[in-house]
């Protein structure tokens, strides 16, 4: 067998073993989702801006949304408290 083909065969075997090993563990198992083209395009652009993968970008955007929601709740609570103080 040609050395280049032998190398490709060994790489394919290693890749297959890695995929099998990763599929056994919950945190490394691959998940897939269907995205509309427009959504993928926006995520892709954001990923390029952040110099990150699509998965990292989705995780970042979700954490930012959670932080924003938490901050909005705090502001609403403060507004309600101020309103209650002013009504006294």
Question: What would you say about this model in short?
Answer:
The chain has three helices and no strands. With 88 residues, it is mainly alpha-helical.
Question: Biggest β-sheet: count, sense, barrel?
Answer: none
- What's the name of the CATH homologous superfamily of the largest domain? Met repressor-like
Named at the architecture level, the CATH assignment of the largest domain is: Orthogonal Bundle
Question: Total helix count?
Answer: 3
Category by helix and strand content: mainly alpha
Q: Determine the strand fraction and express it as a percent band.
A: under 5%
Gross morphology = elongated
How far is it from the N-terminal to the C-terminal residue, by CA?
89 Å
Query: Which regions contain 5 or more consecutive residues with pLDDT less than 50?
Result: none
What is the CATH topology classification name of the largest domain?
Answer: Arc Repressor Mutant
Question: What does this 3D model show about the protein?
Answer:
The structure is a single chain. This protein is mostly helical and 88 residues long. It has 2 domains: 1-30; 32-88, Orthogonal Bundle (Arc Repressor Mutant), CATH 1.10.1220.10. Helices cover 80% and strands 0% of the residues. The protein is built from 3 helices and no strands. Helix 2 crosses helix 3 (54-87). The chain is elongated and about 90 Å long. The chain starts with a helix and ends with a helix. The mean pLDDT is 88.
